[in-house]
Amino acid sequence: MRNDFSLEGAARIPLPFNPESASAMPSGPRSPQDVLSCVKVASHELQGFRPIAESIEWDLGHLHWARAGLLAFAENEVPFVVNNSGRLSEDAAALLFNHCVSTEPAGPIHVLELGAGCGLFARYFLQAFNQLCQQEGRAFDRQLVYFVTDASERTLAQWRERRMFDAFGAQVVMARCDATRPTEIRLADGRVQSLQALQAVFCNYVLDVLPATVLRRQGERIEELRVRTRLTDNADLVRQYTPLGLEEIRALANAHDPDQRALLLPLAGLFDYEVDFFPLEGELPPFAGQALERADPVPKLLVNHGAFGALHTLQGQLVDGGFILINDYGASTPQAAAESAAPQRFGKTSAIGLNFPLLGQLFDRDGWRVVVPEGDATRAIHARLLVKAEQERTIAAFGNRFCADAQQFFDGPAQDARGHLQAGRQDAALESYRLAIARNPRDWRLLGEVAEFVGIQLRDFAAGIELARSALDINPWLSAWLWNVLGDCLYCLERHGEAQEAYFQAQRIDPKDARTQLNLAYAWQQRADFEKALGAVARGLAGDVHGIHGPRLLEKQEQILAQMASLRATEGQRSAERAARLQAA
């Protein structure tokens, strides 16, 4: 018998024939076109093509801001340190002080901050401005009325709960303000107040969440970028997030009730997007016509029409000689704006960077100047000053404070310290950190970084505690990390009760923080409360979204279980010995 096989032999083997199946067989093979014409893509569409600012992702981002308030910062969903460390506040305070010296305002000095978010910029600005006025013997601080505003009512409630501005008395007015309509504010008692005669307006990381669009010119036709939202087709992944079916999720996406739509927030990471350009129907978005006329030729044009509209309105709210200060992310060249013209996600929120070249082209006219600081292109966050051309002292102060050299002066030593640490040069790192603190004595993020280095790496726990407390004096509200640094230094000195209180404070700020839960597991184990220790491990594993603390949490779980088993074994042995003694007696 042959065991080998060949195609030639196989061709002679007759195939079994079933007459009943003959009628079901096609008369001949179908063409590839006929085959493909019967293939369909399963539709998981949640929302059809819409302009960016009308998409469900954009809408959910604003719903999240309204509901989360400060939690978006405390839980590290949204970056906020860059404009809330104190440095930007001190620079803005110096800018306003020099402006007041130049203009000598006689009445109240009204200052508006749009989208104040966590509120730290406002606090540090007020402290720096008041101190500067006292040092220079000027009374501008007594004239100052600072309108700290946000669109989220929840944010205002959290400011009040934390009493963030109580120390400033009548200097501060907390109010709700829609940045797309910055002509009035709503006070805590419900009264509406017009915004007029503003000396200065601060826009920090707020213009990027206002409506924007992306356009392109195709011959004589203008086309707009639109997005279509689909649910991922990975059914297993969807089931891990929600028991809802596709039709139920689709119904929520199309619901008019914001509370119903907000139920989609935990599922935002499951959305997929298609993008395409469509002929623009109806009127151009605001400022789009001017933008297309003035903009440099690029494949596509980002138009931040919500931001431009807000700035245009704010110009009319300023006193003669007033200014607008912008600090935001975005593109500093037309080509970069064309390449990055897309929304970015920060946690559950969405933003789209500013087209700074277009901003300059649109607003550098009618007696206004859009001032660009020297070396701005090298900065991650870009600053712009909108001011009347004759305000030379104000322009000089802006250039001095916001140029790249100034940033290097203040930030360079800390960058050097981190480089030394990476190379293992602890002595050099300590010297650089000393210089960094000398130049930035009220930078809470830097103080916490140095506290962690001194306390945890150099094991000078007492110094680490002092530095961490200095940082927490400046920002006790929004950093679970700072409280953990303090707690770790206390724990290493076996001041376990104080350490646990620090960890509790961290948990109040961010209950999901994995490092906090790991530290609480240590603290509860030290107290032999194993149930709470294991609960902390479970919460830490659930909150460890980046997988940083998972191995240590699992290791701690094993230690707790081993300690529990050891104690049970010891108890069993002691019980047996006791029984034996009683029996012998």
What does this structure look like?
The structure is a single chain. A hairpin with a 2-residue loop joins β8 and β9 (about 220-230). The longest helix is centred in the C-terminal third of the chain and has 35 residues, at about 550-585. The chain has a nine-stranded mixed beta sheet with strand order 6-5-4-3-2-7-12-18-17, with helices on both faces. The protein starts with 6 loop residues before the first helix and ends with a helix. The protein is α/β, with parallel strands linked by helices. It is globular, with a radius of gyration of 31 Å. The relative contact order is 0.09.
- Overall 3D form: globular
**Count of extended strands:** 18
User: Numbering strands along the chain, what is their spatial order in the largest sheet?
Assistant: 6-5-4-3-2-7-12-18-17
Distance between the termini: 87 Å
Provide mean pLDDT, rounded: 90
Radius of gyration equals: 31 Å
Structural category: alpha/beta
Largest sheet descriptor: 9 strands, mixed
Low-confidence stretches: 1-17
Proportion of residues in helical segments: 40-55%
Number of helices: 25
Strand content: 15-25%
What's the gist of this structure?
With 585 residues, the chain is an alpha/beta fold.
